[in-house]
Specification:
Blueprint: H1 3-9, H2 17-39, H3 46-67, H4 71-82, H5 85-102, H6 114-139, H7 145-175, H8 190-221, H9 231-251, H10 261-264
Helix pairs in contact: 2-3, 2-9, 3-4, 3-5, 4-6, 5-6, 5-7, 5-8, 6-7, 7-8, 8-9
Length: about 270
């Protein structure tokens, strides 16, 4: 382990963990790709596959950085490990938006309209993504490190605010029996299908919230701070939280609940 790597990470990264993480996320991507194809699920569900692959790439770059680090590699690693989870928030937004659209209701409130649920929260996710990517790039340069840190903080804070707003919408949709979910082949009723999907959204959003709070605290603590320098915290609150989300997406797979156009005969 060279001093150069330590100067970037501020600690000696553990060997073997990033290799294992890269392999795990690659396997997760393969499982999800297979299940989406097998069930002929809507194409937007490939968001999960792309996110898992991006996580795998991030850990591959982390593996390289441990022994052969450079500024460019370190920036790439930070971006690949910081940004992809934003797509998981988008996935959950899309799930609730599709439930609203499939139900063919005329909601009284504008925030329950299918397009609003999908596009408003999508726009907030893109805005948060842009801020975090800009800030993450700037943090690798000592001249712009402090500015980049606070740009990242703002991006993460915005994500937390809109995740909270989304939870409110998801609870309303979940509690209203008029909103329905297409039954999978092994589900006994639309109500049971909806309950499984909504609870998956709630729990994965909670895990994403935990991860975002950790990242926000890490940024506020600053480069080289106690939280930034605690590698165990990264693997518990980032790696484990994101992996937990993917495990839930696999165990409570939604592909049968959101079939593509050719299967259900309606626009996806």
């Amino acid at each position: 382990m060279g001093e150069t790597a330590i100067s970037y990470f501020t600690y000696t990264p553990v060997q073997g963990a990033p290799e294992a993480a890269a392999a795990i996320f690659a396997i997760v991507a393969g499982i999800l790709f297979y299940r989406i194809k097998k069930t002929q699920a809507a194409r937007w569900m490939h968001i999960l596959v792309g996110t898992a692959l991006a996580e795998s790439v991030g850990y591959i770059i982390r593996t390289v950085c441990i022994n052969h680090i450079s500024l460019g590699l370190y920036i790439c690693m930070m971006l690949f490990l910081l940004l992809p989870p934003n797509a998981l928030a988008l996935f959950n937004y899309k799930v609730v938006g599709e439930i609203a659209r499939q139900s063919n209701l005329r909601p009284r409130h504008f925030f329950l309209r299918p397009k609003f649920i999908t596009w408003f929260f999508f726009a907030s996710d893109v805005f948060s993504f842009m801020l975090q990517s800009t800030g993450g790039s700037m943090m690798a340069n000592t001249d712009t490190q402090e500015t980049g840190k606070w740009i990242c903080v703002v991006g993460l804070a915005i994500q937390l605010v809109f995740l909270g707003a989304f939870v409110v919408v998801a609870v309303i949709v979940g509690r209203n029996p008029e909103y329905i979910v297409i039954c999978g082949p092994r589900e006994i009723s639309e109500a049971a299908a909806k309950r499984r999907v909504i609870w998956t959204v709630h729990i994965t959003t909670a895990l994403l919230y935990v991860r975002s709070i950790y990242r926000l605290a890490e940024m506020i603590d600053g480069y080289g701070g106690k939280l930034f320098s605690a590698e165990w915290a990264f693997y518990v609150f980032d790696f484990a939280a994101i992996l937990g989300m993917f495990i839930l997406y696999i165990v409570f797979f939604m592909g049968n609940n959101f079939p593509r156009k050719s299967v259900r005969g309606v626009q996806v």
